[in-house]
Amino acid sequence: MKKPYSPRAVCVSASLSFLLAAQAVHGAPLAYVPNEKSGTVSVLDTATDTVLRSLAAGKRPRGIAAAPGSTRLFVTDAASNTLLMIDSAGGPVPVPLALGRSPEGVGVSPDGRYAAVAVEEGNSVTLVDARSGARLADIPVRGRNPEHAVFSPDSRWLYVSAEEAEQVDVVDVAQRRQTGAVAVGLRPRGIGFSPDGSRAYIACELVNAVYVVDTASGATLAKIAAGGNANGIAVHPGGKQVYVSNGRDGTVMLIDTASNTVSATIAVGKRPWNMALTPDGAKLYVANGRSNSVSVIDTAAARKVADIAVGELPWGVAIP
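-> structure tokens emitted (320 positions)
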């Protein structure tokens, strides 16, 4: 039987075609921004710094991560306590995965095999098969109210930060259990690794500092003073710069990794939170939760070049 004409289906198909055509023409990656109060993910064209469209993403999307080399997005929905798997090109995806209460940050391993979700009220990390969407393990961690789960560059380790902790918990991915911890300041938030995995950079919100950790020994190599309520971390692919967002100050600081000093401070929007760099490191995208915007920073010039209006309460940015 011939299916009836569907204007909505035609509209969705046209929107997806436009999105994919725009990416092909510009040759630039897309950036994805979850808007916690709007229940959407804004899709940004990083060539023109404009919003292409919005994707439906539950009722309260928070954490977001993009699978390398694919169009699949992993988004935590705090309203339904699920992990949503969204294909930005409209392809089929697994059904949402039930999680514990109040899921937050999600990360995808660099090898593309796993996704990991920090589950606040479960004090745990849920490990997921990134291809099938199946649950692999629920791994308890010591820190209360875990916030972020970030894979090391070799995909062997998960570093997990928590709101009520003075350490970052270290999970062995193969063993599916916590095997260690790294002492840092109170309330660790954002985590980033140097490209070779030898250093971890950890923002600690209540001590307004970034800790530089030797991942082999777990020793703190430096404690770098940041701004008020330091939280988001992004590491330049060249490894020479690290960016930290300061929620209370409305700024992003640029850290020189050779000297472990702040070399620039850039004003952005209100309550900058989580961030992402384009793969070439040319632009940094910063989610401003209280400004309902994303600030774009030219990394070579160390200056803000645009503010992009998005939905309400943007939580972060993912760029495949």
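The CA atoms of residues 9 and 15 lie 10 Å apart.
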